[in-house]
Specification:
This protein is of the alpha+beta class. Helices cover 36% and strands 14% of the residues. Strands 7, 8, 9, 10, 11 and 12 form a 6-stranded mixed beta sheet that branches.
């Protein structure tokens, strides 16, 4: 017998959906220098339980050594006119079915570092580790009036949604199945906003990864926002006039509602390139919640312990000793800590949600 999962989407994604891997090609014609070989070794992804950190695979493509013809064809048709070699080209995960690169850069230490991590991505990860349900990334267009209006509307509406939305009641069977590794009472609704300022070169790669996720976003001169949740997964953009109360409410309600479809690829969204060890982040969060719970129990038990430590009154009317009050006991049930349990493929596809977000969230010209 199967049932729809009652864990909220944002939490289920953090617990159960490892990020998809980007395909990264290093195009070169001459042998790599010693410094370039060292840089290549430095950025090799580290294996984790279900993915790698960063979430990518690197394919060195020596154009002078008869590489895979598909790489040669792509390079000959798409290489930038002003490009130098070696050059690193980042492609979206295969699950997106996109052949357009996310980003490309010369193979230098500073550019590669910015491609793999940036201050805004670190902040997003920190907010998710702190317990935020969703972090909304606002990509400014450079028009101060439009950017300010979009941010004010987004922050005001998200504050309202955090106060009015209700989390689903998580069923015991979902906890026992390993779908939730924290106590249900530790779940909270909290939304925050991280802004990518126009002209911030440190965020060029991050900005490109968002804007290039859809073919025409780069041609739209409007602020846009992407809700990011789980392990760095983003929903499709809300753009221009699509950043409105209705669309913000729709996305927030979906992400805080029960995860009726546990199959990641049947849910809307795409994964971002990050250098975050999400397994460790989740363990850190669980430990922090446990520490807070233990501290709360200790504080609450202190008055009771002080009361029971008082000397007993002498028994009246005889030699029978006074009865000591029973010491209070606190029963706690530790939540299941089974992480990354393989999921039963249940639930109906909800791709319609993604379609609605894309359709109604792209009203920049209306």
């Amino acid at each position: 017998m199967s049932w729809a999962c009652t864990v909220p989407v944002f939490r289920f994604a953090l617990e159960q959906w490892p990020p998809d891997q980007f395909e990264v090609a290093l195009f070169h014609e001459e042998p790599l220098t010693a410094a370039q070989e060292a840089l290549l070794a430095k950025i090799q992804p580290v294996e984790t339980e279900n993915t790698t950190v960063p979430n990518m695979r690197i394919h060195p493509v020596d154009l002078a050594a008869s590489p895979d013809p598909r790489w040669v064809k792509w390079w000959n048709e798409n290489k930038p006119k002003d490009s130098t070699i070696p050059r690193l080209v980042f492609f979206y995960p295969a699950s997106t079915m996109k052949m357009t690169p996310m980003w490309s850069c010369d193979f230098t230490a500073d550019l590669v570092s910015n491609a793999l991590q940036s201050p805004a991505r670190k902040k997003v990860a920190a907010q998710l580790e702190a317990g935020d349900s969703v972090v909304w990334v606002l990509v400014e267009c450079g028009d101060k009036e439009k950017d300010t209006a979009a941010r004010q509307l987004l922050e005001t509406r998200l504050q309202h949604m955090a106060q009015t939305l209700k989390l689903p009641e998580v069923k015991t069977q979902d906890i026992q199945s390993g779908y939730l590794s924290i106590r249900p009472e530790d779940l909270k609704l909290s939304f925050s906003v991280v802004t990518l300022r126009a002209g911030d070169t440190a965020e060029d790669a991050f900005r490109a990864s968002l804007i290039n996720s859809e073919e025409d976003l780069k041609d739209i001169d409007e602020p846009m926002t992407f809700p990011i949740f789980g392990r760095g997964r983003a929903l499709p953009a809300l753009v221009g006039k699509g950043i409105n109360a209705h669309m913000i409410d729709e996305a927030s309600a979906f992400l805080s509602g029960p995860c009726s479809c546990q199959v990641k690829r049947q849910n809307p969204g795409f994964d971002l390139l990050t250098s975050v060890n999400w397994d460790q982040l989740l363990e850190n969060q669980i430990r922090a919640y446990d520490d807070r719970a233990q501290a709360k129990i200790s504080v609450e038990s202190q008055p009771a312990q002080a009361e029971t430590s008082q000397p007993n009154e002498p028994a009246q009317g005889g030699n029978t000793p006074a009865t000591k009050p029973n010491s209070p006991t606190t029963k706690t049930t530790a939540p299941t800590r089974t992480l990354f349990a393989w999921l039963p493929l249940i639930g109906l596809p909800i791709l319609l949600v993604g379609g609605l977000i894309v359709f109604f969230g792209r009203q920049s010209d209306n």
